[in-house]
Amino acid sequence: MQIKSLEIFTTVIKLQSFSAAAQHLHTVQSNVTAHIKKLETELQAELLHRQHPIRPTRAGMQLFRAAEQMLQLHQEVLNQFNHSSLDSNLPLEIGSMETTAAIRLPALFQNLQKRDLQFPYTLTTAPTRELIDAVQAGQLDCAFIANPAPVSGLFNFHVWTEELVLISAKNSPNPLSAEYLSHKKFISFKQGCSYRKVIDHYLSIQQLPAANILEMGSLDGIVSCVSLDVGIAILPLKYVQQSYFYPHIQIHALEAPLARMPTYLIAEDQNQWSSNMHLFFKHLHTEQSPSLPALAAALET
Question: Which residues fall in a coiled-coil region (predicted)?
Fold first, then answer.
């Protein structure tokens, strides 16, 4: 049973004429007749009373109701894959680092919901390495990660660049001495966090031994411990400045190349995206931010 046949059948019933249906559909009447006969053969039922005006049989009325639903569903699917409508039954699975979820995504999601309150999505936070693995395994539609360079084999779009700083307790020396650093623990997320790799690079540049890492599972926990002089940490300046503990910590600038860390949106190849993923990416495009100058070009590729 072809969609085209159902379109012709419903048009014949609505216009009550083979010739009018042919004219409306820009085809010949013999084509209309052939599709109707094909439907009747497939269903083994007489669908139309062939008189003037044309009217459906009881079997025809049954098919007409079903055909209207099928054609509507067909159009909905086309709209979704033309990226013009949401699929409310398929939430977009978004992944993010804890820091990005805290400082960047609230405004993004707020504006998204202003545009479409029903946009379906879920958010999972994890270290960058876990997010990359999840996208590659098809467990996430996309993820916001911190990485010095694009991830090979995936779609990458540079969204933001974070300024990283080293933070210590308010009463710590300034500048931080090598002796002070050698006796302090670094507080960080677990292995797989990109900012943890920055710690290793920082120690190497400072010619200090590998740090004793204290792993914590929350940003507030990390900054709280720093404010109490439990240890030191490297985090995005934007998060530190909005933290409740900001008055109780000291900020130390990092030198290039450690001071800046790109944030990428990663996903599978664009031809594998769902309609919701396309619409989410277009929403990113409409966000008025000077950090998104290349998005229009990316959309054209």
Answer: none
